[in-house]
TrEMBL record:
Listed PROSITE patterns: ABC_TRANSPORTER_1, ABC_TRANSPORTER_2
Family: Belongs to the ABC transporter superfamily.
Domain (ABC transporter) ranges: 13-242
A Pfam family annotated for this UniProt entry: ABC_tran
UniProt cross-references to SUPFAM superfamilies, sorted A to Z: P-loop containing nucleoside triphosphate hydrolases
Protein name: ABC-2 type transport system ATP-binding protein
Species of provenance: Prosthecobacter vanneervenii
Highest taxon in the source lineage: Bacteria
Length: 261
């Protein structure tokens, strides 16, 4: 695959002051961020921090109470179809239709996305994720780890410029998780895909993400590269940072000006 010519600082996805309330409680509280072309941004936070709510707003599944969302410079609400054609999504918690064979499911999605030469594309991606042997299996009978990889094939089918991955390595054994992380990073680098990535696995985050946002009670409490964040928190690993934020709601200092440049 040859890489398209790109501006590495082009903003692909942007949230401005995004707030989502449920019964008066703010699941997201003036949440703002930018995701650039070719960047992998990790969205982290304890259970209930607001990650799924953010993903749902970005996918148009939940309307924000206030704030703005733009993708490819277009408002999400009024350009949903155009934006979705250039994007894709995979979640450990959403399933493809269970009664279809794997190749049938992937063929249906390839058709929906208008993928040229779909057979070849599906075969290439299945090989990359080491699931070529699953084509004739009933989707609903796959193990969680197998389904996750089929979902990832679906997510790469339309060569998305923007990809939202919700816990892509949940339920994978350490060997497969390692392979999946490497495949995601390889395809992401080759295609300069912008990825928003959630995970509770800090190894994932350290290996895959260029930049990280920590959410706590719907607010950003910390943002930077994994290395910057660990040094600001005087921690050796992101897991310690995570625990400090989750238990104490610790808000790390803003990066110093020269660090942010
Ligand atoms: N439909 C809803 N109705 C009421 N409250 C909701 C709804 N969806 C989310 N919430 C609340 O909003 C807050 C954020 O939830 P969200 O699911 O976004 O967290 P999360 O960071 O994805 O957590 P987890 O890691 O457990 O998946 C929680 O307090 C949750 O109870």
């Amino acid at each position: 695959m040859s890489a398209p010519a790109t501006d590495s600082r082009e903003v692909i996805l942007e949230a401005r002051e995004l707030t989502r309330e449920f019964d008066g409680v703010k699941a997201l509280d003036r949440f703002s961020f930018q995701l650039h072309r070719g960047e992998v941004l990790g969205l982290l936070g304890a259970n209930g921090a607001g990650k799924t709510t953010a993903m749902n707003c970005l996918l148009g599944l939940t309307l924000p109470t206030s704030g703005e969302l733009n993708a490819f410079g277009l408002p999400l609400q009024s350009h949903r179809i155009q934006i979705l054609q250039r994007s894709n999504f995979s979640s450990a918690y959403t399933a493809l239709p269970g009664n279809l064979l794997v190749w049938q499911n992937l063929s249906v999605f390839a058709r929906i996305y208008g993928v040229p030469n779909p057979k070849k594309k599906i075969a290439e991606l299945m090989e990359l994720l080491e699931i070529s042997h699953l084509g004739k299996r009933v989707t609903g009978q796959l193990s969680a780890g197998e389904s996750t990889r089929v979902n990832l094939v679906k997510a790469f089918l339309n060569d998305p410029e923007l990809l939202m991955l919700d816990e892509p390595t949940a339920s994978l054994d350490p060997d497969i998780a390692d392979k999946v992380r490497k495949v995601i990073r390889k395809v992401q680098r080759e295609r300069h895909i912008a990825i928003l990535y959630t995970s509770h696995n800090m190894r994932d985050i350290e290996e895959v993400c260029d930049r990280v946002i920590f959410l706590h009670k719907g607010k950003i409490v910390c943002e930077g590269t994994p290395t910057e964040i660990m040094s600001r928190s005087s921690s050796n690993n992101l897991e310690d940072v995570f625990i400090k934020i989750a238990r104490d709601g610790e808000i790390l200092d803003e990066p110093k000006k020269e660090e942010a440049l």
